[in-house]
């Protein structure tokens, strides 16, 4: 099939590359000229395992095109994906200006039937707004072309986006238009061979499904962080508690890791957006408000540990920081816990010497050159001359470091571990002051 994708970010580029790999022909449209020029030369703007090879293959074999020419994009595919960003507005609700701008563009240039597919995460009712925008522009053009607006939320995880798209758990299609449903089923048939993963529902339910999924996951994290904070005060070990509850199949082991708060481009903004949506319909979403509040508090925790350890005297100290990305296997720094920590350390007069396997460029882009941030090439280099080690992201190489080397390098044998990578008893035996989450020390 011929498909156009508007918005070539984490979602759009991965989706486009995976659809092309399955044999579809995909035209990728973005307003960012630099990104499109780079992609034409095989430069992949984000880090995502397996993505580069797919993009290069799709381009080489002529199934993946890149352009900033929106008219060309609209003319290309019968299926038109909208995968642009939906960042939070000033009040936390999702800003739909990019989504509606694409809807307008499609309506301005279309010359035949189109299925307009909302892949961006958008509040309930957005499909109606997209539909109204298209109808308005077509009316201005005096055109009676037909179209359908479908909600098809994306559930990929950054860091595993390619395999999630190739082997989705479910394919949610929100539409009551049979022709559009048929086209969507045809599009996703290559990913739906083993057993039927397609779940068709009305548009509003599909839109809410995406928010409900992310809010449930965020709730699990905040719940575990609340338990961890309690465990600290009650003399319990949250890692034992985690195993104890995860063994119940009704609870399960997935997504119950305590830590230094959730980040990324989705959970923070989606929880906030659903809170605003609820308020707009006169409902007080008490649980969601607490999920957000617990997360905010959790992100302060690592700084509180280190500040207390150094008795509030952080000025002039150098902190080695392992992990900057909001989670492993990505370079995404949006809402990362490391940012809250670094900004607090800087405000207290400390310097940060940081290493991340993939997010160094992104960190440099966000913070620029500053005297109190040194981005280094290795875990070991981050330790040199540092007073303490802090960990924000559970990258695989951080799990089994050479502790005697760490101890040799640090001026003060202290580790603040935001991801519970190490065993507190072992750390104590090696002579470290060790702060984990929910494992003894409280703040
Ligand atoms: P992103 O910021 O990485 O990419 C968005 C892209 O859209 C940018 O390249 C931008 O230049 C482009 N764009 C903006 N306006 C445009 C226009 N008028 N025409 C063409 N391109 C335009 O965003 P993302 O992380 O890919 O997220 C996109 C959507 O998918 C959001 O709604 C997000 O909530 C949702 N989502 C994201 C993830 C994730 O893990 N990142 C997962 C599921 C869903």
Written account of the structure:
There is one protein chain. This protein is an alpha/beta fold. The chain has two domains: 2-201, NAD(P)-binding Rossmann-like Domain (Rossmann fold); 237-435, 3-Layer(aba) Sandwich (Rossmann fold). It has 17 helices and 14 strands. The chain has helices at 10-21, 33-40, 51-60, 70-76, 97-109, 126-140, 161-166, 178-188, 203-234, 238-246, 267-280, 286-309, 337-347, 360-367, 379-383, 403-409, 424-429; strands at 2-6, 25-29, 64-67, 79-82, 114-118, 147-151, 171-174, 198-201, 318-322, 351-355, 373-375, 388-391, 414-417, 433-435. Strand 10 (351-355), helix 14 and strand 11 (373-375) form a beta-alpha-beta unit. The longest helix has 32 residues, at 203-234. It is globular, with a radius of gyration of 24 Å. The structure holds nicotinamide-adenine-dinucleotide. The site of nicotinamide-adenine-dinucleotide has 26 residues, from helix 1 and helix 5.
Quick rundown:
This protein is an alpha/beta fold and 443 residues long. It is built from 17 helices and 14 strands. It has two domains: 2-201, 3-Layer(aba) Sandwich (Rossmann fold), CATH 3.40.50; 237-435, 3-Layer(aba) Sandwich (Rossmann fold), CATH 3.40.50.
CATH class of the largest domain: Alpha Beta
Ligands (ions, cofactors included): nicotinamide-adenine-dinucleotide
| Secondary structure: helix percent | 40-55%
Secondary structure tally: strands: 14
Number of domains: 2
Shape: globular
- Round the mean pLDDT to the nearest integer and report it: 97
**N- to C-terminal distance:** 57 Å
Radius of gyration: 24 Å
What portion of residues belong to β-strands? 5-15%
Number of helices: 17
Show unreliable segments. none
In the CATH classification, which architecture of the largest domain applies? 3-Layer(aba) Sandwich
């Amino acid at each position: 099939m011929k498909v156009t994708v508007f918005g070539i970010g984490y979602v759009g580029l991965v989706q486009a590359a995976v659809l092309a790999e399955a044999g579809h022909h995909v035209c990728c449209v973005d307003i960012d000229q630099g990104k499109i020029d780079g992609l034409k030369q095989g430069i992949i703007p984000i880090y995502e395992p397996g993505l580069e090879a797919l993009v290069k293959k799709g381009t080489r074999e002529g199934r993946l095109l890149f352009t900033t020419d929106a008219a060309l994009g609209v003319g290309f595919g019968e299926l038109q994906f909208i995968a642009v960003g939906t960042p939070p507005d000033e009040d936390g609700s999702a800003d739909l200006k990019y989504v509606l701008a694409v809807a307008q563009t499609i309506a301005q240039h279309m010359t035949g039937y189109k299925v307009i597919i909302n892949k961006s995460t958008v509040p309930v009712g957005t499909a109606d707004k997209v539909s109204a925008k298209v109808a308005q522009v077509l009316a201005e053009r005096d055109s009676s072309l037909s179209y359908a607006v479908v909600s098809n939320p994306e559930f990929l995880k950054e860091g595993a986006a390619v395999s999630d798209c190739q082997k989705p758990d479910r394919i949610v299609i929100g539409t009551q238009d049979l022709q559009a449903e048929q086209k969507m089923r045809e599009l996703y048939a290559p990913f739906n061979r083993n057993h039927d993963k397609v779940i068709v529902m009305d548009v509003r339910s599909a839109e809410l499904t995406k928010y409900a999924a992310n809010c449930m996951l965020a709730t699990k994290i905040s719940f575990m962080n609340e338990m961890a904070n309690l465990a600290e005060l009650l003399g319990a070990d949250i890692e034992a508690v985690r195993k104890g509850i995860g063994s119940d199949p009704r609870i399960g082991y997935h997504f119950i890791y305590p830590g230094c708060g959730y980040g990324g481009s989705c959970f923070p903004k989606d929880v906030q957006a659903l809170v605003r949506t609820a308020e707009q319909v006169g409902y007080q979403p008490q649980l969601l408000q607490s999920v957000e509040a617990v997360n905010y508090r959790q992100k302060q925790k690592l700084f509180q540990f280190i500040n207390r350890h150094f008795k509030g005297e952080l000025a002039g100290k150098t902190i080695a920081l392992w992990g900057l990305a909001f989670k492993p296997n990505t370079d995404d720094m949006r809402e990362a816990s490391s940012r809250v920590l670094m900004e607090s350390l800087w405000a207290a007069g400390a310097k940060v010497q940081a290493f991340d396997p993939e997010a160094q460029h992104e960190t440099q882009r966000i913070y620029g050159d500053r005297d109190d941030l040194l981005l280094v090439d290795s875990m070991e280099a981050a330790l040199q001359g540092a007073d303490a080690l802090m960990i924000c992201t559970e990258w695989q190489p951080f799990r089994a470091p050479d502790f005697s080397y760490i101890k040799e390098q640090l001026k003060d044998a202290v580790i603040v571990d935001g991801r519970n990578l190490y065993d507190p008893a072992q750390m104590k035996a090696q002579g470290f002051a060790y702060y984990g989450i929910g494992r003894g020390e409280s703040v």
